[in-house]
Structures are given as structure tokens and as C-alpha cells.
What we know:
The chain is built from 20 helices and no strands. It is mostly helical. α4 (about 75-90) packs antiparallel against α5 (about 95-105) and α7 (about 125-140) packs antiparallel against α8 (about 145-155).
Amino acid sequence: MRFVLPLLLCLGACGGAQAAPVTAAPVTAAPPSAPALPDADPGAPTEALLALWESDEDPARCPALLERLAEAPPEGAARLARAGRAALACEAPARARALLAASLREADACLPRVQLAAALRTLGNAPAAEAQLRATRRAHPRCVEAPLAQARLLGELGRGADATAAARDALALATGAERARAFDALTRAHLAAGEPELAALACRQALHVDPRRAASWHGCGLADLARGRLPEGLQSLERARELDPGLIDAWLRHGQVALAHRDYEEAERLSRGALAQDPASYDALVVRGIALRALGRADEARASYLRAIEVAPDRPEAWFDLAVLLQEEPRDRRDLDEAARALRTFLNLVEGDPAYAHGAVRARDRLDALGQSTN
Length: 375
């Protein structure tokens, strides 16, 4: 999950003394992996590679599977839909879009439509994704997956009231364990609408359905933090991590709180916990870089920022924080030149984005201090 990081731009550059620690549970190590299944023969049929990926959804299997899907896509609506879901999970949204569209040409079904909307959203076409979900709800009015996805998309777009309406529609359709998912969607919709008290009520209802649902504890943590109830919020995030250590956002949100309270040792610990689950988490790498810089571990901070840039060169936060580090703690003149380059890259990436307006002003001020022109 990608979350907005303009706050971290200030934290990474502002520094400051450490405050009292933000209490948290010890880092939970990743659970032991199940014994790996034997790799498929590179010449195996597409169906064999797809089945092997579905057996454990191991990202390491993605390159071989995606290569085979490009060479020999499966036949039949059901197999094409399975392949599209796999491509989406393997972070190949364009391939997923093609496979899911081919599936829907052969047979209409709700879930491939919803997954096609997810592929369109990942490709940056939110209007097309929204239109796809509206059409899906018209074609499949009893399918709970469509309003669930619609609530998620509208919340991401900042349309909290519309997201709440979609989540309530999902709740009306949901039965059994699906109701916990619908209440989770309602929790996040209320948060997007700036209604943390209602979000707290919705997440408690989700936990009434399934008290061991990590996503619901995570939602309660976000709701409590939004209500200013720090101890309760952190406790809920802690519980979410206990139930599902792979829930990266539960680590990251707690890490953000630690940064905001200048508890840099705790922020570094939590970011390590996130990276133990996903070594390529951009947000965890940025949080860790900020914490390491504040702890006086500049070389490690630099490495963390550079790794974040390698993971997502089109995201701006790491470029800014790397520039600040290089400018304020240069090892030689080349670091100052690299700082200027990083600042210019940051400005190019955030141009016209109001969320980064203050960061852009600060970046130009820093370029001026380096004697560099922004023109």
C-alpha cells in the first residue's frame, strides 16, 4: 500500500532531539516458509506454470510465468481469468488487462471485470477503472466484489461520501464472513470521509464478525489514531501485525507515528519489521532512511534512500531526503553535485502537484543555496 509521505519530507530534513519511546511489541520475524515446490520445467505448458504459481503465489515464480503468458496465453475464459489475476499479482498490469479483457470476450463474469478495473487503476487510469466498476455493478447487481472494489477506489480518490455509499451497498449484499470485509470497506470509507468515530464503530462490527481478522484490527488502529487515541491505535496495529506479519501498512503506520514523536530507534525497528516482510517496500525504505539519518547513521541512511529510488524512481520522497542528506553531510564536492541533481529530479516529479507545494519551495531554496538554478 502506498501512502502519502509529504510529512516525511519534513521529518527527514528537520531532525530534532529524540522523545520518549513509542511503545510497541517486538519485531515479529517472518514465519518459516513452507517447503518450496519443485520448479516447473521451463518448457512446461502454460497451465503447469500457472498452477505452480497458484500453489503458493511466490513472487519468485512471476518472471517465468509472465514470460510464458506472453508466449502462449491459455485458452478459455476461466484460464484467461486465472492468468489475468496472476499477472496482476505479479505487478504486470498491462499483461493482466489484456488477459482479463480476452477472458471477458469469451464469457462475462463479475470477478474478471473487477480485476480488470484493478489493472486499469494500477495503470493510472482511474476514470476507466471507475467506469468499469459501474458497468460491472449494472451487469452483476448481486456481486459483492464490485461495490467492495468501488468503495476502495473511491476512497483512494478522496471521495469519502461516495465510498461510504458503495461500502453500504456491499454490506447489504454480503453474507457470512463477507460481512467482515464489507465492514472493513466501510471503515476505510468513513476514514476517507473524515469520520473517524463512524470508522471506529464499523471496525468494531467487523471484529464482531471475525475477531481474528488482521485487516479489521488494522482498520481499528487507523480509526483510533485519527481520533487521537494513540495508545489504543498502536495496540490495534500491534494486534494486526501479530495476526498477519505480512500486513506491511500496520508496520508503516506505526513507524510514521514513531517518526512524528521523534522516536527514531522505534521507527527504525518498525521499518526493519516491514522490510523483513517485503525487502522492496519503498515506504519502509524511506522511513528507515529518515530514522537512520536522525540516529547519526548517515551511510546506512544513504543506502536506504538509494535502494528506495531503485525500487520506485518515479516517486519523489526519497529523492528529496537523499538530497538533504548529501547537502548537509557531504563527503566531497561530488555529493553536493548529486544533491543538486536529486533536488532537480524531485522538482520534476512533483511539478503541479499541490500535495508537494511546500516541498517544492524548500527544494528550490536548497538549490539556490547550492548555487544552482531551477530554470
